[in-house]
Design a protein that fits this description.
This protein is of the alpha/beta class. It has two domains: 70 residues, no CATH class; 176 residues, 3-Layer(aba) Sandwich (Rossmann fold). Helices cover 24% and strands 28% of the residues. Strands 7-6-5-8-9-10 form a six-stranded mixed beta sheet, with helices on both faces. The two termini are 23 Å apart.
Length: 287
C-alpha cells in the first residue's frame, strides 16, 4: 500500500490511497557502472524533504518484479514494429522464476496483447502487430500504472517502446506520471524515433520520455538500431533483478496534495544511486 494518489477522471482531482508506506526501488552502481550487491539496511538512509526517515522494510535483489511492456503501434512506428517486438521478446528471455511481465500495445486505443506471466514465450498475436492510428502514450502509461498498482509485487516497472509523440491521449503526461508514482512504478523509456524525425519534434518527444524515467527512478534509452534496442531491453531486465527495495512510514502524513522530495543515501563512497525523486501526498477530498 502506498501514500500517493489514485488517478481520477480529472487531472486536478485527488488520488485516493489506502496505505501510508512510501516505497523506493533503488539501482546502485559503482564507478564502472556495475551493479552493486551485498549492501544491507544499515548502509542506507532515506530523507523526505531533508528529514531522516526510519526504514521499516528492506528487500535485496532477490525480490521478484512485475513489468508491463508498452509497444507503440501507432502509424509513426511503421518501420520499427518488428524491432520493438524483438526487443520485447528479449526482455521476456531475462525473466526469473516469479518475475511477471505483460505486453500491451497502444495506438488510438490500448490493448493487452499478453497477460502477466513468468513465461519466456510470447503469444502468436504479437506477430500480428501493425502500425496504425494515433498515439495515446499518456493513456497507455496511465493504464499500465493502474494495473501494476494492483499487483502484489513491490517492485514494478513500465518499459515504454515509443517514439514519444503523443497525439491523442485524454490524460496529460503529468497525470500519467502521478499514476506511476502512486503505484510505485519505475518507468524505463526507450526512444524509438528515427534519425530523420523532425529535430524539434524529436527533442520534445524525448523530453517527455526522459521526464517519465527521471521522476520515477528509471532510465531513458536512445537507440539507433535493432541490436542496440535488444541490448537495452536485456540491460533493463538485468537491472530490475539487482535492485534494492526500501520503505518507510512518514511520521506525519500531510494531506496537502503537495510534492515531497525524497533522497536516498548510501554509506559507501563512489556509488551512483538512482531512485524516485519524490511523491505527491494525498489531498483531503473536502479541501
Amino acid at each position: 500500500m502506498l501514500l500517493f494518489l489514485y488517478v481520477s477522471a480529472q487531472d486536478d482531482e485527488p488520488v485516493k490511497v489506502d496505505t501510508s508506506l512510501v516505497v523506493l526501488n533503488a539501482t546502485i552502481r559503482d564507478n564502472q557502472n556495475r551493479p552493486v550487491s551485498g549492501l544491507s539496511q544499515k548502509d542506507f538512509k532515506i530523507f523526505e524533504d531533508g528529514a531522516p526517515q526510519p526504514i521499516i522494510l528492506f528487500e535485496t535483489e532477490e525480490s521478484p518484479f512485475a513489468a508491463v511492456i508498452l509497444i507503440d503501434t501507432s502509424g509513426s512506428m511503421e518501420e520499427r514494429i518488428s524491432i520493438a517486438r524483438s526487443a520485447a521478446i528479449n526482455f521476456l528471455d531475462g525473466l526469473r522464476i516469479d518475475d511477471m511481465a505483460a505486453i500491451y500495445r497502444f495506438d488510438s486505443k490500448i490493448v493487452r496483447v499478453q497477460d502477466f506471466s513468468d513465461s519466456h514465450d510470447v503469444v502468436d498475436k504479437i506477430f500480428d502487430l501493425k502500425a496504425q492510428g494515433q498515439t495515446v502514450l499518456n493513456d497507455a502509461v496511465l493504464k499500465a500504472a493502474q494495473d501494476l498498482s494492483k499487483r502484489p509485487e513491490k517492485r514494478r516497472a513500465i518499459i515504454v517502446l515509443s517514439d514519444g509523440a503523443d497525439t491523442s491521449s485524454s490524460a496529460s503526461s503529468d497525470k500519467a506520471l502521478k499514476a506511476a508514482l502512486a503505484g510505485n512504478v519505475t518507468i524505463y523509456s526507450v526512444d524509438m524515433s528515427t534519425i530523420d524525425t523532425d529535430g524539434l519534434m524529436r527533442r520534445q518527444s524525448q523530453g517527455v520520455l526522459r521526464n517519465f524515467a527521471a521522476k520515477t527512478g528509471g532510465a531513458f534509452v536512445s537507440t539507433e538500431n535493432g541490436r542496440a534496442l535488444r541490448d537495452a531491453l536485456k540491460s533493463i531486465v538485468d537491472e530490475l533483478s539487482v535492485q534494492y527495495t526500501l520503505a518507510y512510514e512518514p511520521a506525519k502524513i500531510k494531506h496537502d496534495g503537495k510534492w515531497h522530495a525524497l533522497e536516498l543515501r548510501v554509506s559507501r563512497p563512489n556509488l551512483t544511486i538512482r531512485t524516485r525523486e519524490g511523491y505527491n501526498a494525498p489531498r483531503d477530498a473536502s479541501k
